[in-house]
Amino acid sequence: MWTPTTISVLVVTLLGIYGCAPAVSRSVRSHEIFKEPTSPAPDPVGASPSPDIPVLGRAPTASIQRQAEEAEKIGLRASPDDAASGLTRGTLIQEKSPPALLPREQGTLAAEKTAGDEQLLNPLEQALNKTIAQPAQRRPLHFSRAVIDHPRVRYFIREFSRNQKDYFAKTLARSGRYVPMIASVFRDEGLPEELAYLALVESNFHPPAVSPSGAAGLWQLVPDTARRYGLKINAWVDERRDPVKSTRAAAAYLKDLHDRYDRWYLATAAYNAGEGTIDKALQTSGAKDFWTLSAKARLREETRNFVPRFVAATLIGTDPNKYGFENLVYDPPLEYEEVEVSGNLSLAALAELAGCALETMQSLNLELVRHRTPPGQMPVRVKLPAGRAAGFLSAYYERRNARPVEIVTHEVKKGETLYSIARRYGQEVRSLIELNGLTSRRLRIGQKLQVIFEGLRGRLR
Question: Could you tell me what percentage of the chain is helix, strand and coil, using 3-state DSSP and rounding each to the nearest 5?
C-alpha cells in the first residue's frame, strides 16, 4: 500500500541517487568556464572538485592524457624526421589550423578571455599553444638525446672541442661578427636562428672563402644558386661575399628547401649536396628522413657528415662553456653605414675620404672583387665604418667637384709597357692590372686598356 509517507521517502531517495537535489546541484556549461563569477565563493580547502569542472592550473595524469589525445585530433604530432632520430620536441607538423585553445569537452570556449587566463592554463597546454601558434619554419630546433648521442655527432663534438679546439675557438670568436646579423635576418624570415651555424660548417664564418667547386662567401653558394636568389656576380662584383645580401639569399634558399622536404635535416643535407642528389637518394633508398638516408643511400662522405657536423657545431656554439670553451672573446658585431658613389673609384681612395684604414674598407666591401667600384654612371652603394658617413660625403663631393673623374681607353702601342702607361696617366701598375682584370703583365700591340684619368693627378684611383 503506497501511503503518502512512503511516496515522499521514495522521491527523496531517487533525487539523491540521480544528483538532482537542489542543494548540491552544480551544472556548468563548457563555454562558461572562463566567465568571471559575479560573487565568487571559494571552495573549501582540500575539497575535491566536481568532475564536470576542469581545475585550471592543475595537470593530473588523466588530464594530461586527454590533452595529448586532443592534440592528436587537431593534427599536432611529431615530425617523421624526429621519429627516426628521437627528436620529439620543437619540430612539429601542423596539418590544419588548430583552435586558439585546446578544447576540454564538446562545445567551445568563450570568445573573450581575460589577460589573466593565460596564467591559469596548465604548463602542457601553454607549451602546445605556444608551439602551434608559430609557423612551421619558425619553430626552434631542439636536438633530442638520440641525435646528440648519435656516433657521428659525438665524433664531431670531440673533434671540435678537443683535436681542433684552438682553431674552433677562433671560429667561435669570429662568429660574434656575423651571428647577430644572421639571427636577425632569420628571425625576420621565420627561420630557426640555430641555422646560423650552417655558416660555421660552410665557411667558418669567413666570407672571402672559396671552395674548389666554385662556391663562395659566408654561405658557400655556387653561382647558379646565388643568381637564382638575386645575387649579382660579374667581373666587378660578387655579392656572395657580401655577408648581409648572401644571408638573405641563403634564408630564401633554406625556406624553399624546407618547403620541399618538410624536414630540416633533409633540407640542410640538400643545401650541401643539391636537391637533385637528395631527391635521387630518397627515391632509390626509400628513406623518409636524413638518418635513414645516410645509412642506406650512396652519398658523398661530405654530405653524410654535413648534418652531424652542423648539429655538433650548433651544440657547441649555443653553449660553449659546456664543451670547455670558456672565456671566449667574441668579435664585435658587424656595423657600418652605406653611401652612394658614382664612377670607378678605388677602395684606397674611399678609405682616404672616410679617414679609415684601407684594410677596414676592404673588409666591409668584400663583394668588390677588384677593390674598386664598377665603372658607369649608375650609383653604387659602399659600406663605411659606423659614424663616418657624414664626413665622407662632405669630402667626397668637395673632391669630386674639384677633380671630375673620367675613364679613358688606351690602345697599346709598340714598345709600351704597363709601367710606362701607368706613369703616363699618373696611375699605379697594380691599379691598371686590377681595373682591367689582367692575369699577366705582358701586353700585345693593339690591346685596349681602361685608364682612370683625373686631370694631371689621378688622386681618386
Answer: 50, 10, 40
